[in-house]
Amino acid sequence: MANRVQEFNAFRSRMNDRILGADNRAIKRFFGVDTLTYERGVLDPKTKEMLGLVASMVLRCDDCISYHIQQCKEEGVTDAEMFDIFSVALVVGGSIVIPHLRRGVAFLDELNDQTAKQ
Amino acid sequence: MANRVQEFNAFRSRMNDRILGADNRAIKRFFGVDTLTYERGVLDPKTKEMLGLVASMVLRCDDCISYHIQQCKEEGVTDAEMFDIFSVALVVGGSIVIPHLRRGVAFLDELNDQTAKQ
Amino acid sequence: MANRVQEFNAFRSRMNDRILGADNRAIKRFFGVDTLTYERGVLDPKTKEMLGLVASMVLRCDDCISYHIQQCKEEGVTDAEMFDIFSVALVVGGSIVIPHLRRGVAFLDELNDQTAKQ
Amino acid sequence: MANRVQEFNAFRSRMNDRILGADNRAIKRFFGVDTLTYERGVLDPKTKEMLGLVASMVLRCDDCISYHIQQCKEEGVTDAEMFDIFSVALVVGGSIVIPHLRRGVAFLDELNDQTAKQ
Amino acid sequence: MANRVQEFNAFRSRMNDRILGADNRAIKRFFGVDTLTYERGVLDPKTKEMLGLVASMVLRCDDCISYHIQQCKEEGVTDAEMFDIFSVALVVGGSIVIPHLRRGVAFLDELNDQTAKQ
Amino acid sequence: MANRVQEFNAFRSRMNDRILGADNRAIKRFFGVDTLTYERGVLDPKTKEMLGLVASMVLRCDDCISYHIQQCKEEGVTDAEMFDIFSVALVVGGSIVIPHLRRGVAFLDELNDQTAKQ
């Protein structure tokens, strides 16, 4: 299971290349806007990643949750802050969010284990 | 595949402990309300579990479906009643529910197999 | 506001006639299945309407909620039972359900007012 | 009610100007990609608008449905073709789509009335 | 239209009283958890309200959006920050969010007009 | 991974038999309507399958996406047309669709590999 983080990132990266290589103009530009959205604007990247995480949780997308948990960690979001984000997602989105919360926390724990080993 | 039921319950139980151990007040209280909701009120637990199952199906959450199928069986919901619940979920939620129905029925069959072997 | 119930039912009935009159075979048969689903099966119509109500609430469809509240009342669901159904919808679907709960309860109150006046 | 089409388009146009005037770079670029998506690609605009309509229906967004019904009519989609699109949306998305179908058909009828009067 | 803000708050407040008065234990406790969630935790109330706003937008609930826009303003979120939140919601949730964005911005403009007049 | 296509179809077919064998009248008739919907109507099957694909993508159901990609290929939809469908799904449904797009394209590539080997 220690490889779940690497596997996730490898598949993500490989398929993004495949998709962008198909050279569909609207898709390529959408990916561009997606990247731009999380860059520093009036809000800093840390806040934007926290927004991306809570949005992914209420929409219940495991891969998006994993991705934004990684990004949040890189922006310095602490585990305690992460659980405050989770609490908003849970109350807004309801108990239907719980299975995604379980998998998200499992992913966070793997990330933390890998950092501890480095 | 016979272990899918046990694996599901073990992961569920382990991650619930991990999440509650993080000691986030809102999350802990949400879990408390979640438990309270399915206790006998004006409606009995059997009816409430059937409501939880149909809600999980139209929201298309496999883990929630598995969980409520287990609870429904414990409350004495028969397989034929279960399929009546499935029919409401299917018609309200549309063909997009079908893949979740397939996995839900596969889970129900595993549960029944294990009961038969005991 | 006392006419909201009548207006809702009149629009619903008029548009159903218009849609079925368009004579699209798949649409007509879908409407047939929809009606069949709430007829007595292994589960009685009262239970099925309660299932339809909770499904409509977590999917957050005001018209569907109004419709199933009417049907539930006709099947003898009491107000206290109705609130137990609402509680399951709220906990499964989260705070995002609350605005629909407010409008649903307002609709239920209008229905009760009209019955009291008869 | 004859003004619902005009009111919808006036509000849509006024608020789009307001939003783009706020000069948020990601939002402006998103609106650009949105426009580009329905331009002729490998698929023609008529097919793309039909895709936009069915997507709007299963996601149950009344304004998006109204907008794409207008666009479909401009691209020459007939009423009978429109009902075939509606049937796919209904079966994929379930009975929860019906209230949106009713309002969509009412909007289509208003559009047709206005065209007949011109 | 200047009264839309007051009307929204009056209906919200009146129906909350009605719902809590029904004395359903799970519903009352859910409302309690909902309030608790936005209180200062590890994250401050401003950040939590921003999280609540983006979650409401991607789940496309107009009333929830109006409510959190009000709360964000009270916590000092500027209009420019608000549009950064909108951009994340738009890119995560897609063009289906646009009609809700239009109504949200219209609500924000009314709020600003009323503040300017005071 | 070369077996993912076969495994998917085998599970789908086996569970459909199991579900229809349960002899629930509403479920059986729903499956009948589902089949009817994609048959030639005013629109041809190719267009209907494209509609089914985009609807499945914005509702984010991996199995439905896989199924409709297969059907689209059988109806002669080219890869370039497929990416135009993907672009509409992406823009309407937002970045939350991307993980499903990745898995859909991976499935399409496997289908193409198997065809090439025959």
Distance between the termini of chain A: 17 Å
Shape of chain A: globular
N to C succession of SSEs of chain A? HHHHHH
Radius of gyration of chain A: 15 Å
Most extensive interface between two protein chains, with residue counts = A-E, 31 and 31 residues
Count of discrete alpha- or pi-helical segments spanning 4 or more residues of chain A: 6
pLDDT averaged residue by residue of chain A: 96
Main sheet specs of chain A: none
Note down, in words, how this protein is organized.
The structure is a homohexamer of 118-residue chains. By secondary structure, chain A is mainly α. Helix content of chain A is 79%, strand content 0%. Chain A contains 6 helices and no strands. Chain A has helices at residues 4-21, 25-37, 45-58, 62-74, 79-93, 98-117. Chain A is globular. The interface between C and F is small, with 10 and 10 residues.
Salient structural properties:
homohexamer; 118 residues; mainly alpha; 79% helix
Quick rundown:
The first copy, chain A, is mainly alpha-helical and 118 residues long. Helix content of chain A is 79%, strand content 0%.
Indicate the topology.
Six copies of one chain form a homohexamer.
Chain A: H1 4-21, H2 25-37, H3 45-58, H4 62-74, H5 79-93, H6 98-117
